[in-house]
Amino acid sequence: MACPGTLLIVSDTIPNITIPTNLLPTDGRFGSGPSKVRTEAVDALAATGTSFMGTSHRKDAVKDVVLRMQDGMRQLFSLPTDWDVIIGNGGATILWDSLTFGFIDQKSQHLSFGEFGSKFATAAQKTPHLSDPMVIESEVGSHPELVADSSIDTYCFTHNETSTGVAMDVARPAGASGLMCVDATSAAGGLRWSPDQADLYYFSPQKCFASDGGLFIALASPAASARIEAIADSSRWIPAGLDLKTALDNSRKKQTYNTPALATIFMTMHMVEWLNENGGLEFAAGRCDTSSSHIYDWADAHELATPFVSDLSMRSSVVATIDFDDAVHADTVASVLSANGIVGTDSYRKLGRNQLRLAAFPAIEPSDIQALTSCIDFVIGELA
Fold first, then answer.
1. Which superfamily, per CATH, for 21-37+280-383?
2. CA nearest 322: which of 364, 374, 370, 357?
3. In this structure, what DSSP letter does residue 5 have?
4. What global pTM score does this model have?
5. DSSP single-letter state for residue 29
6. In order along the chain (384 residues), what is the average pLDDT of each group of 10 residues?
7. 140, HSE (Cβ side, Cα atoms, 13 Å)
8. 108, 133 in Cβ contact below 8 A?
9. Where do the domains of the chain lie?
């Protein structure tokens, strides 16, 4: 295995390397978000003609699709009947601000082990009406654990840290009374979890759900919905566009507060129904397991590569991060792959490592993952 080095400066000139056609994947999209969108979903959207796109989101043509998406989420995640499926505009990044206004009561605990968990912790730290949050950090490439504390009313962490390829189980800390608030942006629809271990499980659909961005989906337990309603009824000022109670009320009517991206809703509906038709979450997670296991086995056996996450229990099944020896310029490899139609393999820039980041989402064919590693091997051989 390789001993990973630091990020290297790469020439602006991309080497002229052509990957043989017989090695190429059938679809070259391996980005960690936005991710591969299934052509079947795009075709189905186009087939709606004039009946869906360009129509009012307050009318049945759109509300029926919203309901199908909501019911699909309930089925996929085996949600109890009293859970809400909340939808709203802006994605998970906007939702962080909504959570600081309308979900965290007084004090939150945050696990910070990558870019996105850190950003939510920072948002809570900067919110003037909240107490300073408890932030627990760990070395990049690992994750810390939640710690039960009587002063904490909301426990916040990422199910899968997209920036690093670290995943952690969704589990309530023993003795904790606060609500569990889980950022599942790159995990939902690809990693297993149990609703009895969470209260708010939120995500955007441009990763495992193979859709476009601009929407957040939050699965809310009765306790989570009650918290949202209680804060909305308090004296706390909440901007109208960030009001989770408004999002909750509209979601119960199969709509959003303001005009949503209809294509995103349709393609999310199409993907969740495809997953359910093929076996549900176990089918989806199984595909991710197969794809990611191939990547990790390939890297473990490689002379010039090694998985970035050393603890096997923390390795993500949906986003694999692979370090390379100093003899390999990972950015150059990514550039050559891109020039051959294989896109989205670049590392997360702020991580600053000589690394490729490879999505293994359910929409990606496991056979294409096998083709991807063959293409990487070919490029490395040509660059040697």
1. Aspartate Aminotransferase, domain 1 (3.90.1150.10)
2. 357
3. -
4. 0.95
5. B
6. 38 85 98 95 98 96 98 98 96 93 98 94 97 97 98 98 97 97 97 98 97 96 98 97 97 95 97 98 98 98 98 98 97 98 94 96 98 98 95
7. 14
8. yes
9. 21-37+280-383, 48-277
